[in-house]
TrEMBL record, chain A:
<keyword id="KW-0677">Repeat</keyword>
<protein>
    <submittedName>
        <fullName>BRF2 factor</fullName>
    </submittedName>
</protein>
<comment type="similarity">
    <text>Belongs to the TFIIB family.</text>
</comment>
<keyword id="KW-0805">Transcription regulation</keyword>
<dbReference type="Pfam" id="PF21886">
    <property type="entry name" value="BRF2-like_C_cyclin_rpt"/>
</dbReference>
<keyword id="KW-0862">Zinc</keyword>
<feature type="region of interest" description="Disordered">
    <location>
        <begin position="268"/>
        <end position="316"/>
    </location>
</feature>
<dbReference type="InterPro" id="IPR000812">
    <property type="entry name" value="TFIIB"/>
</dbReference>
<dbReference type="GO" id="GO:0017025">
    <property type="term" value="F:TBP-class protein binding"/>
</dbReference>
From TrEMBL, chain B:
<dbReference type="GO" id="GO:0005737">
    <property type="term" value="C:cytoplasm"/>
</dbReference>
<dbReference type="GO" id="GO:0003677">
    <property type="term" value="F:DNA binding"/>
</dbReference>
<keyword id="KW-0539">Nucleus</keyword>
<dbReference type="GO" id="GO:0006352">
    <property type="term" value="P:DNA-templated transcription initiation"/>
</dbReference>
<dbReference type="InterPro" id="IPR000814">
    <property type="entry name" value="TBP"/>
</dbReference>
<comment type="similarity">
    <text>Belongs to the TBP family.</text>
</comment>
<dbReference type="InterPro" id="IPR012295">
    <property type="entry name" value="TBP_dom_sf"/>
</dbReference>
<keyword id="KW-0963">Cytoplasm</keyword>
<protein>
    <recommendedName>
        <fullName>TATA box-binding protein-like 1</fullName>
    </recommendedName>
</protein>
Length: 367, 183
């Protein structure tokens, strides 16, 4: 005879919290239409995580997010393009809290999460666009072939990646901006007058705030490239008219990037000592780095006309917003040992006099 | 440019955090009343006191624990902490300056090249973590030094560590890895 407490039946009892969590993970997988193997992996991660002390005694809100994190990690491990924004909107969660739970999960379970594939994200994101079939709200001239649009958007996103517009930024605004330019360039005649916001509304997608900036940056890159194309040099292109020539620009992308920007390392001529500005002296890297790169660009000083080569740098280095760090250490500061004697007069500046104390007490109405 | 060639990099220390204890109970209300440059946060039970030279901010608890932030070197942190302890002595408390320790150092260093973050992350798993949806930099942790580096595509690196030596070692360790993934 075996006592009930020793039988496996009791050990298989799952807590209500765990059961509810597993159900939530399964529901999420169904909503996202994920394969069954994803659901099994996500559930196993959830069970492991919930047994971990870091997640066992957290709030219910965090436990709900934990399920979403497990699904998110599973999708990333299988190169299924799912963004944090999507999961957060499904869970009605704040991104900051989701981020903290996600990073804890990654750390505690030692999970390796590969990077999000932009190519897959482009395909998935464009799947949600409603411009590929005729509809009541969509003018006939605005309907586009899906394959062509995906191909051109992919090329524009690759161009953005090569020109420092993707690194460190949210991917969706870049994909949305690239999709807009791709769509316009495929049939410019009827579409150049359509603004970005209207395009997103017709496509049935959100317009994320940074997308306008990404669009502007992409257009700047395209304009620079266009200035190097022989048959376009005669035209005075602007941000609207350059869209008509995106096909040609993408076709000759490598050549144009090389000519429009200082790409080669040899051209950038950074001497090994450039990084150091002398012992204890300040270094303002963006300015000095930028100056070094401009000097390194061949004849940059001579060809300062529109269309002249400029360094290919992340936008924040080209247009620095921050006040540069110029904390200069004086000789006196360098000599500080920490054990200097402290005089009374130094300290008295930090103490209130009797009159000041009376006035302060009166102002604060302290007894 | 070669990773092995001598490259001098400036490491700019932007913040040093230190703690010390006064070994006596502190009356926060008295400090708020009699001390200048003081902010009394009654709801959380602490007082903030700012010194001009060195430019530090001290958080003071009634238990006698004090945390000082804002110094730009370990020596400056110690001097600031001692000046603060002396101020508290002048206010009438029986302060003994003990258990002084630098707990955190924040520094910034700039590489003379841009860094391809996706490539760097791929080559340096699992120490490196890159989530552009959350933060534009790669987070690289060196467990042995208890140091964390935030590596930006511009080549700027922010390092936090328990002391200056750990921060300098962290920069030395990371340089060959970022050099491999330079633009």
């Amino acid at each position: 005879e075996v006592a009930y407490s020793q039988s496996t039946g009791q050990k298989e009892q799952l807590s209500r919290c765990l059961l509810r969590g597993i159900r939530r993970v399964q529901d999420l997988c169904k909503v996202l239409q994920l394969p069954t193997v994803f659901e099994e992996t996500a559930v196993s991660y959830f069970q492991r995580a919930l047994q971990h002390p870091s997640f066992h005694l957290v709030s219910l809100e965090k436990k709900e997010l934990l399920g979403g994190c497990c699904v998110f990690v599973t999708c990333r491990q299988h190169n299924w393009p799912l963004t944090m924004g999507t999961i957060c909107s499904l869970l009605y969660a704040k991104q900051e809290l989701f981020a903290s739970v996600y990073l804890s999960l990654q750390k505690e379970l030692g999970l390796s999460v590969p990077a999000l594939s932009l190519a897959d994200l482009v395909k998935t994101h464009l799947n949600s666009f409603q411009l590929f079939q005729h509809g009541a709200n969509i003018p006939a001239a605005f309907v586009e072939d899906k394959e062509k649009m995906v191909a051109r958007t992919m090329q524009l996103v690759e161009l953005a990646g090569e020109t420092w517009l993707v690194t460190g930024r949210h991917p969706i605004p870049i994909v949305t901006a690239a999709a807009f330019l791709a769509w316009q360039s495929l049939q410019p005649a009827g579409r150049l007058s359509c603004p970005f916001a209207r395009f997103c509304k017709l496509a049935g997608v959100d317009l994320p705030p940074p997308a306008h900036l990404r669009l502007k940056e992409l257009l700047d890159i395209l304009l620079r490239m266009a200035s190097q194309l022989a048959w376009l040099k005669v035209f005075k292109l602007d941000k609207k008219t350059v869209v008509k020539h995106i096909g040609d620009l993408l076709q000759h992308r490598i050549f144009l990037l090389k000519n429009a920007f200082c790409l080669e390392e040899g051209e950038e001529q950074r001497a090994p000592g450039e990084g150091s500005a002398g012992e204890g002296s300040p270094r303002s890297p963006p300015a000095s780095g930028g100056a070094a790169r401009e000097q390194g660009c061949p004849s940059a000083g001579q060809r300062q006309r529109e269309g002249g080569r400029r360094p290919l740098l992340p936008p924040c280095l080209l247009h620095p917003r921050k006040r540069l760090r110029t904390a200069a250490l004086s000789a006196a500061d360098c000599a500080v040992t920490g054990d200097e004697p402290i005089s009374d007069s130094e300290i008295e500046q930090y103490l209130r006099g009797p009159e000041e104390m009376r006035a302060f007490r009166k102002a604060k109405a302290w007894p | 440019m070669d990773a092995d060639s001598d490259v001098a990099l400036d490491i700019l220390i932007t913040n040093v955090v230190c703690v010390f204890r006064t070994r006596c109970h502190l009356n926060l209300r008295k400090i708020a009343l009699e001390g200048a440059n003081v902010i009394y946060k009654r709801d959380v039970g602490k007082v903030l006191m700012k010194l001009r030279k060195p430019r530090i901010t001290a958080t003071i608890w009634s238990s006698g624990k004090v945390i000082c932030t804002g110094a730009t070197s370990e020596e400056e942190a110690k001097l600031g902490a001692r000046r603060l302890a002396r101020s508290l002595q002048k206010l009438g408390f029986q302060v003994i300056f003990t258990d002084f320790k630098v707990v955190n150092v924040l520094a910034v260093c700039n590489m003379p090249f841009e860094i391809r973050l996706p490539e760097f992350t791929k080559n340096n798993r699992p120490h490196a973590s890159y989530e552009p949806e959350l933060h534009p930099a790669v987070c690289y942790r060196i467990k042995t030094l208890r140091a964390t580096l935030q590596i930006f595509s511009t080549g700027s690196i922010t390092v936090t560590g328990p002391n200056i030596k750990a921060v300098a070692s962290a920069v030395e360790q990371i340089y060959p890895f970022v050099f491999e993934s330079r633009k």
